[in-house]
Amino acid sequence: MNHGLILPILIPLFVGCLLLLASGASLRVQRALSLLATLALLPCSLWLLAQADLGSVQTYALGNWPAPFGIVLLLDRLSALMLLLTALLALFALLYALRGDDERGRSFHGLFQFQLLGINGAFLTGDLFNLFVFFEILLIASYALLLHGGGRERVRAGLHYVVLNLLGSAFFLIAVGALYGVSGTLNMADLAVKVAAADADQAPILAAAGLLLLVVFGLKAAFLPLYFWLPRAYASATAPVAALFAIMTKVGLYSILRVYTLIFGSEAGSLANLAQDWLWPLALLTIAIGVLGALSACSLQRLVAYLVVISVGTLLAGLSLGTAEALQAALYYWLHSTWISAALFLLADLVARQRGVKGGDLVQGPALQNPHLLGGLFFFAAIAVAGLPPLSGFLGKLLLLQAVEGQQALWLWPLLLIGGLGTLVALSRAGSTLFWRVGRDQLDSAELDYGRLCACLGLLLLSPLLVLLAAPVLEYLAATVSQLHDLAAYRQTLQAGGGL
């Protein structure tokens, strides 16, 4: 048994507890502990990625209890990729926060580590109940992080966010209870076997539970009509928190991919492809509503939040197509959209800091102290997020458009292309307001912080890096998709644990 599988959970767990217990320690000590823990996740994730690339699906049974009775962690190519994505994102978000945003409230670093604990646990868990537990951990941490810095707008957005997610948690628990009541297990691999063998009396309850899970994951992923909480919550959060939240919608999408491929996938008998008919129209409508929201956004932060909604719709379209080519394209776009969205939240904060009370509002404000530098970064980010060549957004969308065929192509091609044009128009409007139509005076107190700038630049540079490494990345993603469709590999892990 590979004990390294549990490190992405144990590192933030122990450091998070230590930071909360040592809340009276100096800020310098807290920053050092938090930075060391976040840095440690990077080589750990790279090592697990190398382990996953060996090809086998690995499991880790906590307490040596065999599946399906014990808590099981599961490492495959997909979960390893998500861990690396999170580690890189968290590192740059934390580096940005260390320049002063962590001083705006209490226990920032402890909450940051608990957020990573929940996210890493959700990507590694092999059973639905622990997916629920890790969801709750990351949500509780996110409630407090969203309020970090205080203010009326954050409290209002936080209240909305908390109420909706508590409702989602209740639905999650009901669905999990129904699945356990019928099948007697919550281990995902075991559930896949039990659902495929379900008789006519069990199938309606399993289907109801499966669709209830889709509602829960849809709320986390923020696709139509469950996205309303996202623009206000992300726009009101502090910049490093919003950047870290760029991975939150991906946790919901990851759950959809995992559950509706493994449990309710093509080999689920009478419940095969349970959610497939719902995902495609929801994906298209989410892209459309995201573009409309971006065009009507009144602040740069809210515009970026709607760009996150567009990326959710685009990814959901790739997942709903279900083919190997579409999933490979979606996973490539997944990496791109997470890092670029996070970079845009940081860049929006850099711009807002030089506009005083105007902040990120899309109205005429004072002249920026560094218009050429910030304008150049904004131009670069706009090209990347709109999907123009030569950056990774273009490659991701191109792969997705090549993967769609037949009648579905008639819907996706115009929607993605017109949506890209709408995104470009929204970003052009924002750019001209922020960098061109400005007053003559500058704010003397708004100097550029080069530490924050480097953190933002680091995330932006991941886009050309994705293009330069496109061949090995796509090769890894092709192997990931192939492994996801090889359900026998997941069932073998169950047999190894003695569950069947």
TrEMBL record:
Source organism: Aquipseudomonas campi
Q: Name one GO molecular function term.
A: NADH dehydrogenase (ubiquinone) activity
Q: Which residues cross the membrane?
A: 6-25, 32-50, 70-96, 108-125, 131-149, 161-183, 203-230, 242-266, 278-296, 303-324, 330-352, 373-391, 411-432, 453-474
Q: What is this protein called?
A: Monovalent cation/H+ antiporter subunit D
Membrane topology listed for this record: Multi-pass membrane protein
One GO CC term, this protein:
plasma membrane
What does the sequence similarity comment in the record state about its family?
Belongs to the CPA3 antiporters (TC 2.A.63) subunit D family.
| UniProt-listed NCBIfam families | PRK12666.1
Q: Which domain of life is it from?
A: Bacteria
Q: In its keyword annotation, does this UniProt entry include Lipid metabolism?
A: no
Q: Choose any GO biological process term that the UniProt entry carries and state it.
A: ATP synthesis coupled electron transport
